[in-house]
Write a structure and sequence with these properties.
This protein has about 100 residues and is mostly helical. Helices cover about 50% and strands about 5% of the residues. It has a domain at about 10-60. It has helices at about 10-35, 35-60; strands at about 80, 90. The longest helix has 26 residues, at about 35-60. The two termini are about 20 Å apart. The mean pLDDT is about 80. The chain has two helices and two strands, in the order H-H-E-E. Strand 1 (about 80) and strand 2 (about 90) form a beta hairpin.
Length: about 100
């Protein structure tokens, strides 16, 4: 199959967002263990900031281009094959 392949999240915007979110989870997790509520809150803020970073970078053109619309093909005619003498029909064999 020739042409460009589209992969979910394979862009600089997605990578940056995931890295920032990962750092936010790390901060929140570390401060959870240390029982510091403000640190956990700071980790949550950094995690939310990761989503904002991804959206801003995507709007700057660093996200993945939208996939092209699929080409519609005409539906194949379903030909029912009559049975030999009973008058029943059967579906064609799929190869």
């Amino acid at each position: 199959m020739a042409g460009r392949h589209y992969h979910h999240g394979n862009s600089p915007a997605a990578w940056a967002a995931v890295i920032v979110v990962f750092i936010g989870f790390g901060i929140g997790g570390a401060y959870t263990i240390m029982a510091e509520p403000l640190g956990v809150l700071a980790g949550g803020v950094v995690t939310l900031l990761g989503g904002v970073v991804g959206l801003v970078m995507r709007s700057m053109g660093l996200g993945q281009a939208p996939a092209p619309a699929p080409v519609s093909r005409p539906a194949a005619a379903s030909a029912a094959i009559p049975a030999q003498s009973t008058g029943e029909t059967r579906e064609p064999a799929v190869s």
